[in-house]
Amino acid sequence: MLRVTQIHSSVSTSLQTVQLAEDGGVALLKSDELHFLWQASTGKNNLVADVGSAATEFNAIVLPLDDAFETRLDAARRLWRGLNNRPLGSAYGRLPKQTKTRHTLNLRALDGRRAGATYRQIAEVLLSPREPIAPRDWRDHHLRHKVRAILRRADRLVAGGYRDLLFYPHSRSRKSDR
């Protein structure tokens, strides 16, 4: 959510003013503050303006210096780039590809365990699909320990760790103390 405002500046005379018209895909949500859902090339933008200001136009975005500053800064950057018909670039806080792959592997291993597969079967299917693991080698096989670690991570995800993904890249531990 970005707070927008109208400022008059003597520093820069080239302020870009954006008009919010209700027929242009803007939806008003509240009356104490004006909450707008604005459909633009950047996706849906949630903009908030004070009632007393010229609420249908803005030329500045207020960015509080709080825990979500970087997220708001990136949302403001992407909004500005979209308004100027520039490529948006990658979004701040997007999960890295390696992390997505690891979480997918965790959940696939958990699905296998819940379906009744043994650790060795999970290792053969997910980690070593081309070569079967001999039963005599399984006790000391390096994939045995890897499967156990994968399933421990999957258990933590299912036990509530998935909520951390909602706050990524911010830490949820500080937020849960409140």
Describe the structure.
Helix 2 packs antiparallel against helix 3 (119-127), helix 2 packs across helix 5 (142-161) and helix 3 packs across helix 5. The longest helix is centred in the C-terminal third of the chain and has 20 residues, at 142-161. By secondary structure, the protein is α+β, with helices and mostly antiparallel strands. It has helices at 69-83, 97-114, 119-127, 135-138, 142-161, 163-167, 172-176, and strands spanning 2-5, 18-19, 26-28, 33-40, 43-50, 57-58, 60-62. It has two domains: 2-83, no CATH class; 97-176, no CATH class. 11% of the residues are buried. A hairpin with a 2-residue loop joins strand 4 (33-40) and strand 5 (43-50). The model has no long low-confidence stretch (mean pLDDT 77). The strands form two sheets. It has a five-stranded mixed β-sheet. Strands 2-6 form a two-stranded antiparallel ribbon.
Quick take:
The chain has 178 residues and is α+β, with helices and mostly antiparallel strands.
Helix and strand topology:
Blueprint (H helix, E strand, L loop, with lengths): L1 E4 L12 E2 L6 E3 L4 E8 L2 E8 L6 E2 L1 E3 L6 H15 L13 H18 L4 H9 L7 H4 L3 H20 L1 H5 L4 H5 L2
Parallel strand pairs: 1-5
Antiparallel strand pairs: 1-7, 2-6, 3-4, 4-5
Helix pairs in contact: 2-3, 2-5, 3-5
Descriptive labels:
178 residues; alpha+beta; 43% helix; two-stranded antiparallel sheet; five-stranded mixed β-sheet
